[in-house]
Amino acid sequence: MAETRQWRLESRPVGEPTHENFELVTVDRPDPGPNEVLVETLYQSVDPYMRGRMRDAESYAEPWDVGDPMKAGVVGEVLESNADAFEAGDVVTGELNWAEHAVADAGELRRVNPDHGPISTALGVLGMPGVTAYWGLNDVGNPKPGDTVVVSAAAGAVGSVVGQLARLGGARVVGTAGSEEKIDWLTDDLGFDAAINYKETDDLSAAIDDACPDGVDVYFDNVGGPITDAVWPRLNVDARIAICGQIALYNATEVPTGPRKLAKLIESRAKVEGFLVSDYEHRWGEALERLSTFIRNDDLRYRENIVDGFENAPDAFLGLFEGENAGKQLVKVGEYDG
Amino acid sequence: MAETRQWRLESRPVGEPTHENFELVTVDRPDPGPNEVLVETLYQSVDPYMRGRMRDAESYAEPWDVGDPMKAGVVGEVLESNADAFEAGDVVTGELNWAEHAVADAGELRRVNPDHGPISTALGVLGMPGVTAYWGLNDVGNPKPGDTVVVSAAAGAVGSVVGQLARLGGARVVGTAGSEEKIDWLTDDLGFDAAINYKETDDLSAAIDDACPDGVDVYFDNVGGPITDAVWPRLNVDARIAICGQIALYNATEVPTGPRKLAKLIESRAKVEGFLVSDYEHRWGEALERLSTFIRNDDLRYRENIVDGFENAPDAFLGLFEGENAGKQLVKVGEYDG
């Protein structure tokens, strides 16, 4: 019988995850049941939100169980189908196992059209991160032309799209990132008005002041922690803060503390709102249509950081917390011949 | 020439304000100029926001200058008028000096109708605190019938109105306050479903859990600090948090720190919004009409804590930070004979 490999959660991390939390196992390749499809993974996504699922705590997503395969966004090719909607050779995306092969119910899969661009983009700029950026910026942040928009983790899969969409909407765009190479990409290729290398900046508050002479109207926060602390005092009247992620805090082993922030909201009448892309399920297509048009017109650029080989998936995930990736972090698992 | 007394800012407080920050001076009673009115103070308000104006820092309101008379909400009687809109004997309200007499431009005054109730209510339930409660709850908090609404400083001038309005709207209402006498008032007279004496509670989180078995949908925050920390983990999906005040932090001499709170907003998709009643200037009358109707029908109750004598105004103000007042804290300065 054919086999496949899976990454399972070996143990729950305390603080920063390590390789010891992951176990690579070889199992029999599963057979699809009625209305199910067998998918061969071509690309697997790794994302910061996964840190939350490794934890044994109630959150918006169920935690993963120790000993079970972990879950990830996957783009793959249908090998066998017992569902009318799909046939062998179709390219699909969905939340599947961290695995070379997995079985999924047809209802959990979305079709990927290879003519629309590289299939890997279904996990990045034309997938969850792109849609997160689109609705988070436009529905929660809601920038107006001339506004100053600050985005943290600006070179990441979400942040890089946020900044470019804000620029296209006529805003002044400032990003934070963790290397000179990323800073250059933001300002030279993506059209950011300014970018701050937070790792090389002694006085983050002064850097934000310099980059935002008219204050901050929209803050799109992927990071939390000291970067957010530095942006906060610069919030303008009626500022909007979209809380997308707080990666700076995800590995904390004690309750993270910092300056109390709520009083500033009174003076500025600012609004802070957390959001989840899953709440925009019904508006997914609308975002994809706009994003793909921007890409076709070269108004929106993206980068993918692809680690080759399924065995390297934990490396790719752990790198997220080191700020190693510019753009979307992916793992290439199989070869697409389409 | 007739004289009057004023309280002036003698020095800026460091931490908790003390009597040494206030100076009582006797000056010539001012003469009204063109379109101005001489007002005799009958009641003077003291409010937590005044702590911010004693500070030499930019905020939503100009700081007071050392050596100048401080400003307060006042209800008074017109003694002399050079304005068409007012005549001697009229009762008016506005932001005037901490003084027994003051001159004001007619445009800064609002008429008080003594037939609508005790004139002191123009500084409380039918004034700034009542309007703050009305629009902060209804426009920012926006509770639905069946929601759980938590309000901090629930026995205060704003909080007591917030809780009753929420109850009238069909919400489950939980308040926090700092004495058993206040707790009894909230639950026995004002119809709160539960009230927590934060000074006598070892485990505030457990107390909030007990009082809010279905979580918290709306949190109206007057206080900040540990009470807010205890409410935060109980926020439901789509919760709204209206930030009205943060009195627990106003006397801090260093940047107050506490648990970082933004990650919870992602999971709960909750919205935190600061507001100022001055932004509702154009909707003041709408709030007053509703509030006075509720009062006439005995659906809305209020308390005033009146300190007698202008010389005791600093005492009344300092008491705000001790949590001494239930309901609206006022200073009675003159006798109304109307």
TrEMBL record, chains A, B:
Q: Name one GO molecular function term.
A: oxidoreductase activity, acting on the CH-CH group of donors, NAD or NADP as acceptor
Q: List the InterPro entries.
A: ADH-like_C, ADH_N_2, ER, GroES-like_sf, MDR_fam, NAD(P)-bd_dom_sf
Q: Oxidoreductase as a keyword?
A: yes
Residue ranges occupied by any Enoyl reductase (ER) domain in the UniProt entry: 17-331
Q: Is Acetylation included in the keywords of this UniProt record?
A: no
Keyword terms: Oxidoreductase
Q: Where are the transmembrane segments?
A: none
Could you tell me which SMART domains the record lists for this protein?
A: PKS_ER
Q: Which domain of life is it from?
A: Archaea
Q: What is this protein called?
A: Zinc-binding dehydrogenase
**Organism from which the protein derives:** Natronorubrum halalkaliphilum
Taxonomy of origin reads: Archaea, Methanobacteriati, Methanobacteriota, Stenosarchaea group, Halobacteria
